[in-house]
Design a protein that fits this description.
300 residues, alpha+beta, Jelly Rolls, Arc Repressor Mutant, subunit A, three-stranded antiparallel β-sheet, 10 strands, 42% helix, DNA-binding, Homeodomain-like_sf, transcription regulation
């Protein structure tokens, strides 16, 4: 898997220039109209990670690839992208249009933990199909964002952060009620949250990674300095799944991404995911989806 595209690379690819304020202490934010066409043809947005966040309002039919998921957008959608999840948009409509903002993690330094919201988490929902009424409301938020961004107001970036939060909460409210779980500030939540953070830090895999180091529940318990049974109870209480289930699901997700979008052979993928023997990886993968890694790669 390629390394994440940096903001500098994004600007060079899109505009062949780099903003002077890209490295300032305030973090970086910018706003763009969506331009899916180049010389009469649809632009190919490559499947890869970026090291910045992106919130986009898109009108038009398209297919979105997020990690191992595929979303089909029929008319219009609101999407959220984060540095952890590689993605790719295939725009299908000839009259596509939209607007998006990008910002780096430093833009929200001391202004909240946006990565805690489900729309920016690898296992969360990233694309929301919108009704016409919902699309109108999202369009109005982006219009306010454009007006604020073009203003000379001294604290306009504080306002822009609030508008990003407004989009985040708008998207989260579109999720089914069952997905919106009430969070309780207790020890179990803290342990489960740190476990999930440690799990996610190991992904996505790219050429700079040799092999993930935390594979078993006991590995995470040692890092957290708690008994493995305590960890298992906390994770089960907060997520409804066992520690082993969550580790297995995340490894499976990453293995699908690598099989579909990297040139690594199965042995290299197995090693990067912490399997000492390729046969162990083959058995793990086939047990999950009833296909071998090679069969999955050929069929994708």
């Amino acid at each position: 898997m390629e390394k994440a595209e940096s903001l500098e690379e994004f600007y060079k690819r899109k505009f062949n220039w780099i903003p002077e304020n890209l490295k300032n202490d305030l973090g970086h934010f910018n706003l763009f109209r969506l331009e899916p066409y180049l010389e009469g043809k649809l632009k190919a947005v490559p499947y890869r990670r970026r090291d910045f966040y992106k919130v986009m309002f898109f009108k038009g039919e398209s297919t979105v690839h997020y990690a191992d998921r595929v979303y089909e957008v029929k008319k219009q959608a609101l999407s959220f992208s984060n540095p952890l999840v590689p993605y790719k948009w295939d725009h299908m409509s000839e009259n596509a249009s939209g607007v998006y903002c990008i910002f780096n993690p430093h833009f929200f330094m001391n202004f909240g933990q946006i990565q805690q919201y489900e729309v920016f988490q690898p296992n969360g929902t990233h694309v929301f199909e919108l009704t016409d009424d919902e699309a109108k409301k999202v369009g109005e938020i982006f219009a306010r964002m454009k007006e604020e961004f073009d203003s000379e107001y001294k604290y306009k970036y504080d306002v822009l952060r609030n508008l990003i939060f407004e989009l985040i909460h708008f998207g989260m409210k579109l999720q089914p009620a069952a997905v919106q779980q009430t969070q309780h500030g207790n020890a179990s939540l803290r342990i489960a949250s740190i476990f999930l953070e440690l799990l996610e830090r190991q992904f996505p895999i790219d050429e700079s990674h040799s092999s993930i180091q935390l594979r078993a529940a006991s590995d995470f318990a040692e890092q957290l300095n708690v008994h493995v049974n305590h960890l298992n109870r906390a994770v089960k209480e907060m997520t409804g799944k066992t520690t082993t289930q969550l580790i297995g699901e995340r490894i499976l997700q990453e293995s699908k991404v690598l099989l579909k979008h990297s040139s690594w052979n199965v042995s290299e993928i197995a090693f990067s995911l912490g399997f000492n023997e390729v046969t162990h990886f083959n058995n793990f993968f086939k047990k999950q989806i009833n296909l071998s890694p090679t069969q999955f790669r050929k069929g994708s």
